[in-house]
C-alpha cells in the first residue's frame, strides 16, 4: 500500500472547513484515499456515477440533512452539478447548529466544472486539494526510473510488468477519449483528439505553435486552442507560461506544453520499455517534463512556475517564484554530468535568482560552481517540500 501525501492534507483541511474538494485526473487514487479516510471517520460514501446512489439524492436536502454529524463523501460530484446549491444550504444550516467543519468531501476528475460550480455556490465554505499521480516522494528511491517510465497512476506503476502497465495506460487513454472528453467538452471526434494529443506528445516541452498544429489536423487555430484548454482542464496537459521581466531583451512569449504524466506520454508514443524510451528523441524532453511536474507539485502553495527564454538563446527550463518573491532557477539534464549550458548562465545573469540548481539523472548532490548546485530530483523535491511544511 502506497502512502499518499494528499491523505494528511485532506484530513487537515476537513478540520478547518465544512467541505473539501479533492481534484485530480481519473484513476489517480482519489476514491481509494477517500475510502481510507472515510473508514476512520465512519463516513457515508456515495458514488454519483451509480444510479442507485444518485436516486438517493432525489431529495438531497432531506437525505443529506440526516447525516449532519457524519462526513459525507460524494464521488464524481460533477455528475450532479445542481447539488452544489443544496450543499451550500446544508452547510449554512449546520454552522448555525455548531457543525462547522468536516461535512462533505467532494471528489472530481476535472477542474473546469467542479471549480466553476463550487466557486459560485460554495465560496468561503470549501477548500481545494489537488491530487496528482504518484510523486518521487511516494515511491521507493530505487523505483524512480520505473516511475518515470510507467508514470504515476498507481495501477500503471504497480502493474506486474511493462506490457501490463502499457496496456493499462492505453485503456485509460481510450476512456478519456471516448467517455470523459464528450462529458466535459463539446463534441470532439475521438480520433481527431487522439491525433492532437499525440502531436503534443511529440512536441513535449516545446513551444505551442497553434498554426502548425492546426495545419496538421486541418482545423482552425481557435479549435487547437480549444482542444488544448480541454486537456489542461482535464489535468492531463500543463501549459508552462513564459516569465516576463523587463531586462531589455526580446523574450519568448509563447507557453511551453507538457503531457503531465510521463507514463501517458510514453503510451501515446507507443514506447514499451526503458530501452525504447532511451532510443527515442523524446527521452530528454520526457525527463524534463517528469522533473518539472514533480518540482511544481512539491513547491509551496502560491508558487508561480514558469520558464525564461530570450531570442538570443538565454534559457531557464523552470523558474519558480516562491511566495515572497524569491526566484529559483532550475536547469534539467538527463545526463549525470549535470553541466549547464551557456544559455543558463546568461539567463541567470539577467534574472539574478536567489538559488540555482541543475537537476540531473542521478542521486548525488554536489557544487558545480559557487552559485550553481547539481542535485537529484528527489533531493530537490524534499528541499521544496520543507518550505511547504
Automatic annotation (TrEMBL):
Gene3D superfamilies: P-loop containing nucleotide triphosphate hydrolases. Pfam families: AAA_14, DUF4143. Residues 19-139 form the AAA domain. Residues 178-335 form the DUF4143 domain. Coiled coil: none annotated. InterPro entries: AAA_14 (IPR041682), DUF4143 (IPR025420), P-loop_NTPase (IPR027417). This is ATPase. It comes from Rhodoferax ferrireducens.
Amino acid at each position: 500500500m502506497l502512502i499518499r501525501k494528499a491523505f494528511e492534507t485532506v484530513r487537515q483541511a476537513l478540520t478547518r472547513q465544512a467541505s473539501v474538494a479533492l481534484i485530480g485526473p481519473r484513476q489517480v487514487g482519489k476514491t481509494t484515499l477517500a475510502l481510507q479516510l472515510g473508514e476512520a471517520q465512519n463516513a457515508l460514501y456515495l458514488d454519483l456515477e451509480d444510479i442507485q446512489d444518485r436516486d438517493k439524492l432525489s431529495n438531497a436536502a432531506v437525505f443529506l440533512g440526516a447525516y449532519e454529524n457524519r462526513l459525507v463523501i460524494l464521488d464524481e460530484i460533477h455528475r450532479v452539478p445542481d447539488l452544489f446549491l443544496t450543499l451550500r444550504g446544508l452547510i449554512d444550516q449546520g454552522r448555525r447548529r455548531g457543525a462547522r467543519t468536516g461535512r462533505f468531501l467532494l471528489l472530481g476528475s476535472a477542474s473546469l466544472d467542479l471549480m466553476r460550480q463550487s466557486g459560485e455556490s460554495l465560496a468561503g465554505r470549501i477548500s481545494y486539494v489537488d491530487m496528482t499521480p504518484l510523486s518521487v516522494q511516494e515511491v521507493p528511491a530505487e523505483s524512480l526510473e520505473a516511475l518515470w517510465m510507467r508514470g504515476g497512476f498507481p495501477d500503471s506503476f504497480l502493474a506486474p510488468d511493462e506490457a501490463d502497465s502499457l496496456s493499462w495506460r492505453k485503456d485509460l487513454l481510450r476512456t478519456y477519449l471516448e467517455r470523459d472528453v464528450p462529458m466535459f467538452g463539446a463534441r470532439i471526434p475521438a480520433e481527431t483528439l487522439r491525433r492532437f494529443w499525440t502531436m503534443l506528445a511529440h512536441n513535449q516541452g516545446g513551444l505551442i505553435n497553434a498554426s502548425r498544429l492546426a495545419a496538421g489536423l486541418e482545423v482552425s487555430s481557435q479549435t487547437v486552442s480549444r482542444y488544448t484548454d480541454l486537456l489542461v482542464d482535464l489535468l492531463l496537459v500543463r501549459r508552462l507560461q513564459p516569465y516576463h521581466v523587463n531586462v531589455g531583451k526580446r523574450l519568448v512569449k509563447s507557453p511551453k506544453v507538457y503531457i503531465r504524466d510521463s507514463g501517458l506520454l510514453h503510451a501515446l508514443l507507443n514506447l514499451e520499455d526503458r530501452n525504447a524510451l532511451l532510443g527515442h528523441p523524446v527521452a530528454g524532453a520526457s525527463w524534463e517534463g517528469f522533473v518539472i511536474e514533480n518540482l511544481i507539485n512539491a513547491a509551496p502553495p502560491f508558487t508561480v512556475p514558469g520558464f525564461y527564454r530570450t531570442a538570443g538563446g538565454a534559457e531557464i527550463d523552470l523558474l519558480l517564484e516562491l511566495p515572497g518573491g524569491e526566484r529559483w532557477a532550475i536547469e534539467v539534464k538527463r545526463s549525470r554530468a549535470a553541466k549547464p549550458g551557456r544559455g543558463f548562465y546568461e539567463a541567470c545573469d539577467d534574472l539574478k535568482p536567489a538559488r540555482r540548481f541543475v537537476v540531473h539523472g542521478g542521486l548525488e548532490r554536489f557544487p558545480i560552481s559557487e552559485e550553481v548546485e547539481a542535485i537529484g530530483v528527489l533531493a530537490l523535491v524534499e528541499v521544496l517540500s520543507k518550505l511547504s511544511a
